[in-house]
């Protein structure tokens, strides 16, 4: 079994790769893994066990057709994590989102058909459904994305669907709630708040802080992706959720408490443009088909994550320095 993992140097992709290579997915203990990653600001080789003989790392762009046509033959499956993933950056400028998320996914799909790859799992997001004022979105809910990020992901989901229907490519799409865990780039809200507090700085909270997000540990997300790769049905989309719903204000309170800081460390900032109020998923399909339930209770996973950032300054401080620039050029926190 040989897998090509796009975006495998990022937060979720690298967790999936490390899980595979440490033999955590039964039946895949001997799988060989190729990571294809452009190493944008969000990707880092320090996320990967580069000395593992089963891992091959290729630096490259999913928009590069020639590279894909050379690389894909011999791979049994593609798990496609690569994306521009930060909502605030998509508000500041969306061209890279259209390029990677739409054109990149399209190029990958064409090359999978061209080289006979037999399985393609596309990693998407709950944000494609838009804001859920009440209730929860099922896989049949309409796609009503509100940010350029979410729109580019929705477009890629539809391209994946079309390549299944038109070309018979075996595809599955997963749409997950907000992830948290170790190795998340410190621009996303939990690592941003934790690392800022650890550096003695304040944290920015958007608007009234009552936006609601559901949080799932990255390990539970990756386990669900693996179930879909192994046993998912072709042409079918799976919502992945079952974590903890929290307002951003409550999440901020938890981060402050974990680090022994008070509300004086919170700066209220103007709300994000087009900010979705609430995301909520009905994850009944993946529960009924595979018995999938999250295993990591939020309180435990959250405390372990904060501790990981405490213990791993050597991982995040270079990333913070690398992306530091004039304050006006910095996107705000991603609250999902
Ligand atoms: P991330 O930003 O941490 O990592 C993205 C990776 O993709 C990086 O390593 C980057 O270098 C790489 N990449 C970007 N453009 C590329 C290109 N053109 N060619 C090759 N590689 C490229 O993102 P993440 O949080 O790990 O998210 C992974 C996937 O999961 C994304 O598709 C995202 O939409 C989806 N998702 C994320 C969340 C979340 O909470 N983080 C939730 C649901 C779904």
As for the number of domains, it is 1
As a whole number of angstroms, the C-alpha radius of gyration is: 19 Å
What is the average of the pLDDT values? 95
Under CATH, the homologous superfamily reads NAD(P)-binding Rossmann-like Domain
Low-confidence stretches: 326-336
Percent of residues in helices comes to 25-40%
How do the strands line up in the largest sheet? 3-2-1-4-5-6-10
Strand content: 15-25%
Count of helical stretches: 11
Count the beta strands.
12
Q: Which second-level CATH architecture applies?
A: 3-Layer(aba) Sandwich
Distance separating the two termini: 34 Å
The top level CATH class name: Alpha Beta
Bound molecules: nicotinamide-adenine-dinucleotide
Walkthrough of the structure:
The chain has helices spanning 11-21, 65-71, 87-92, 95-115, 148-167, 189-198, 218-231, 248-258, 284-290, 298-311, 313-323, and strands at residues 2-6, 32-37, 55-59, 77-80, 119-125, 171-176, 178-180, 203-206, 212-217, 236-240, 244-247, 266-269. By secondary structure, the protein is an alpha/beta fold. The chain has one domain: 3-Layer(aba) Sandwich (Rossmann fold). Strands 3-2-1-4-5-6-10 form a 7-stranded parallel β-sheet, sandwiched between helices. The longest helix is centred in the first third of the chain and has 21 residues, at 95-115. It starts with a strand and ends in a 13-residue tail after the last helix. Mean pLDDT is 95; it is low at 326-336. Bound molecules: nicotinamide-adenine-dinucleotide. Nicotinamide-adenine-dinucleotide (NAD) binds next to helix 1, helix 4, strand 5 and strand 7.
């Amino acid at each position: 079994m040989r897998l090509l993992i796009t975006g495998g140097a990022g937060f979720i992709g690298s967790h999936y790769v490390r899980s595979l290579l440490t033999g955590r997915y039964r039946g895949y203990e001997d799988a060989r893994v190729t990571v294809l990653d452009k190493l944008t600001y969000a990707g880092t080789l320090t996320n990967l066990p580069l000395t593992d003989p089963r891992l091959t790392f290729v630096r490259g762009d999913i928009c590069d057709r020639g590279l894909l046509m050379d690389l894909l033959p011999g791979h049994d499956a593609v798990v496609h994590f690569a994306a521009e993933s930060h909502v605030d950056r998509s508000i500041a400028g969306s061209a890279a989102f259209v390029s990677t998320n739409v054109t990149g996914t399209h190029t990958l799909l064409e090359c999978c058909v061209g080289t006979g790859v037999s399985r393609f799992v596309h990693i998407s997001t709950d944000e494609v459904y838009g804001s859920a004022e009440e209730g929860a979105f099922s896989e049949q809910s309409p796609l009503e994305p509100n940010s350029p990020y979410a729109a580019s992901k929705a477009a890629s989901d539809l391209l994946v669907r079309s390549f299944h229907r038109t070309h018979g490519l075996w595809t599955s799409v997963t749409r997950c709630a907000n992830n948290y865990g170790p190795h998340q780039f410190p621009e996303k809200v939990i690592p941003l708040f934790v690392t800022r507090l650890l550096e003695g700085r304040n944290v920015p909270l958007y608007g009234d802080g009552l936006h609601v997000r559901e949080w799932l540990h990255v390990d539970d997300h990756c386990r669900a992706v693996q179930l879909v790769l192994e046993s998912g049905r072709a042409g079918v989309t799976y919502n992945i959720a079952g974590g903890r719903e929290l307002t951003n204000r409550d999440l901020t309170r938890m981060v402050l408490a974990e680090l022994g800081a008070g509300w004086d460390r919170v700066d209220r900032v103007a709300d994000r443009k087009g900010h979705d109020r609430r995301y909520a998923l009905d994850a009944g399909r993946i529960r009924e088909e595979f018995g999938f339930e999250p295993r990591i209770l939020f309180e435990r996973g959250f405390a372990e994550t904060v501790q990981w950032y405490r213990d791993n300054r050597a991982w995040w401080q270079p990333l913070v320095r690398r992306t530091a620039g004039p304050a006006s050029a910095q996107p705000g926190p991603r609250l999902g």
